[in-house]
Amino acid sequence: MTPLLLAAWNLCADAVFAQPTPAPTYRLIVHPENPATKVTRSVLADAFLKKVTRWPDGELIRPVDLHVESPVRLRFDEQVIGKSIAAVKSYWQQQIFSGRDVPPPELNSEVAVVEYVRTHRGALGYVSAAIDIGTCKQLSLE
After folding, report:
1. Taking the alpha carbons of 94, 68, 79, 15 in that order, is the dihedral positive or negative?
2. Is residue 3, in this structure, part of any structural domain at all?
């Protein structure tokens, strides 16, 4: 094949076999009184890595994670933070060792995440799409 024909073939194959980014299978939730309605993926990742610490209204962001064996946590870390759970754990070990910060609390269930978010101003969490979020507010991901 000529280089031009090969390049055209590769472009066509990419278009035919390209996989769309999977839709999130989790919901982002915040405290009911949080005025935010949407968040970008980069700001969300920075909030969970504590690189961004305040909401636009000045309230402290209080991220909360699910336990490391949760499939929802696995998808969230890979899709939002762009790292495996092991890589996120390594990041937090470095932050702790250097005295910079500690990781968000890890809760054992999605129900516990909903309760934490409902009772802590500034809280930010994620749960599977099937979980009842009660009075918590859902954020849109931009």
Report:
1. positive
2. no
Task: For the beta carbon of residue 127, count every other beta carbon within 10 angstroms.
Answer: 25
Name the residue with higher pLDDT: 13 or 50.
50
- Two tokens at 49? 């890595």
CA dist., res. 89 & res. 54, Å (int) = 22
- Letter for the amino acid at 125? G
* Residue 1 forms part of a structural domain: no
Total domain count, the chain: 1
pLDDT at 25: 81
132 located within any domain: yes
Residue 129 falls inside a structural domain: yes
Structure tokens at 108: 């054992």
In sequence order, the β-bridge partners of residue 129 are: none
pTM for the structure as a whole? 0.81
* CATH code (residue 79): 3.40.190.10
For residue 110, the enclosing domain spans 24-141
Asked if residues 123 and 104 have their Cβ atoms less than 8 Å apart, the reply is no
pLDDT in tens, 104-138: 999 999 999 999 999 999 999 999 999 999 999 99
At a CB cut-off of 8 Å and minimum separation 6, what does 48 contact? 63, 65, 80, 81, 104, 124
